[in-house]
Amino acid sequence: MDLNGISIVKDEVSSDVDDMNNSPTVIKVIGCGGGGSNAVKRMIEYGLTDVDFIIINTDLQALRVAKASRKIAIGKKVTGGLGSGGNPEKGREAAEEDKELITDILRGANMVFITAGMGGGTGTGSAPVVAQIAKELGALTVAIVTTPFSFEGPIRMKQAKIGVEKLHEQVDALIVIPNEQILKIVDKKTSVKQSFVAVDDILRQSVEGITTVITKPGDVNTDFADVKNAMQGQGNALIGIGVAEGENRAVEAATKAISNPLLEDAHIDGSKNILVNICSSDNISISEVNEIVNIATASAAPDHHVFWGEVTDPTLGDKISVSVIATGFEGEENQNAEEKDEDERVEPSSELNDNVMNSSDFERILHNSSRAGEFVNTKKVNPSSVKTQQSELFSYEKKDSEQTVQKKSSLGNNVVDSSESEMGVYVKPLRKQFVPPTEDVDPNDIYRPAIWSTRGFGKSFNLTDDDK
Fold first, then answer.
1. Which of 13, 63, 253, 391 has its CA 20 to 30 A from that of 329?
2. Does 361 lie in the same domain as 313?
3. Residue 227 belongs to some domain of the structure
4. Dist. CA 388–CA 437, nearest whole Å
5. Owning domain of residue 336
6. What is the rounded distance in angstroms from the CA atom of residue 308 to the CA atom of residue 328?
7. CB 334 within 8 A of CB 429
8. Residue 55: how many CB atoms within 10 A of its CB?
9. pLDDT digits over 43-71, tens only?
10. Whole-structure pTM over 0.70, yes or no?
């Protein structure tokens, strides 16, 4: 195959950015691999403006027919122009091979959108490399990618998961659109082509929603600096666009924007940064603006930061278009905290014998005068065989042959369950590990709460007269 049949663009970015668009902000959209190329193609066909389109691929045949102002054939040495064969490692190597070309074509951008279909070879492997380059160039880097249908198999799904994780490490913000979700919103007779068009349209709307905020000035303007503040270094992001008309148009448009069915079960609850852009003719009222912003921020974090803008577009007539971008989710911080707690967890002590009892067991004895003897010097205890009185902290009930514990009073974040172990019943944390105070605690205080005990750092009681 003639590898010289396709030109590799190495043009320098024009110093006169007005030649490219009317906004001083330089925005570039780069499609990686076949899926990313198709998404870019649909954006161009739709007429998306004010952005510079780029495509990179290892498949020369696909690259020849792709639509974009700039195309780069990557990995000629690695793939010979024949594609990556669904191997993400080859996709990564291809991008590394032509890292200089990618750097040249991204240089000068204030914002870079990366789009790819995760799970294959070129897109999955090259997208993280492209993201790293864009970040190193100082561009606000946002990736909008898709994940496979479940019927595409476990290998492709696993490759997509790994690719998304690697991409997440390199970008400022990441929007993931699962292809599987389209099955929930399209008719069963919808063709394969129409299904992928629907997914690509979500990619297009995501890019358009953000670029419109930046490039279209309005009466109340949100600019690139606002978008950068909302998205830089924020990790997972959500974007939604809603359009409606009629008497209740403001409520309907805002509701559609925050409930995009193709974004899986994602929602903006707990978001700390919400950017709302309203596009309408000049007849929008202040009460409608109030309704839109209130709906968009209703479930945000208490200390959220909202950026909002209003753009006039006479072509919309009676319609209102609402774009919502949400980042800075509480869930990400909670997850990181839980992972940190897991790493710092104290391992249970193994220095236990038949004459030592966990304080959780001892606490049960204190609340059961009639059956206490069953616990003494018992190596293994089945909690379902013991009838105890209810303590002041928890109520116990049997469900599906398993012992469960229901919280009856506030114990902070220390939600626990009761599990069977060799030494009896011990309290095991489900979420954040509770660490008892280490100062001013009497080691002989038998009323120390049993909730403090996990087999590693609770207190144990020697029930014999042996002082050894």
1. 253
2. no
3. no
4. 28
5. 237-344
6. 17
7. no
8. 27
9. 999 888 889 999 999 999 999 988 888 99
10. no
